[in-house]
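User:
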Amino acid sequence: MVRRYGLVVTLALGLFATTAQAEVSELKITKQPGLLFAPMLLMEHHKLIEKQAKEAGVPDLKASWLTVMSGGANNDALLSGSVHITTSGVTNMLLLWGKTNGDIKAIIGVSGLPFKLVTRNPNIKTIKDYGPNDRIAVPTVRQSIQAITLGIALQKAYGDDKANEKLVPNQVQMGHPDALTALLNPQHEVTSHFASSPFQEIELKNPGIHVVLESRDALGGDGHVALAYGTTKFYEENPKTVRAFLAGYEEAVAMIKSNPKAAAETYLTLVKERATADEVAQLLTQQGAIFQAAPIRTMVYAEYMAKAGFIKPTPKSWKDYFFPLLHDRNGS
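Assistant: Predicted structure:
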């Protein structure tokens, strides 16, 4: 009886160990249109996650990529369990961090590029010039990084913490490709677009389109725009996969930094955007371009969103909403 009991315990422990060590066989990740997500496109195209996973001891891992057009839809996909990792704006991650009491956190920073509010309305020179009928396209009304940045800028412009909501009624939810089409259509109700690269550069090539606001003016400098984030359960149960994801990302970043023209050419073969390889390479290397895993200037958003009532509690450090993977690096 003792021998039989011992055998049962041994088998049970063996089964538990096998289960505990099993990682996902298919990693489901979202991406969005635009240069901010160039590392993701390179990771997908060159199968960098699969390469790094094989080296990490997960030889059969498959990475599946889903294009999602807005931050809100990205968050819904993560909450529903449809994907394991979503790549979206800093503010969208912070919203889920607050909503889930810290269960969802950032895994890595993805990118940061200066983004601009542009308009075809000649009467709008500053954000104070918007009237009630002037429509502004943003990825997600009130909550996207563009909408939050606009709120920060309004507080500064009016010297009033309550001014951040002034232009919420003007906002229209629209993905960047659709917003580009709308802005260039003189008959469309959308006359402004808080954009990102390369869409803002394409828009500014057209006569009559001009810049109203730049993100760095609102934030006091450049910082991360996009992060990759997931649930605590996924992070804790898939340590090798998470590290393969980080390693694949850093390999993609190395491609961008070592040969931006080649990275730009690959990017343009994967998207339908009206830009040349030289133009894209210039944007990837422009002043303020950030491609690194450790976050830069994300606490500006966290502190604003806590004070404005978007999230609770107020983070004391970026490490509060990032998993430990990057805690040994310098961030902000």
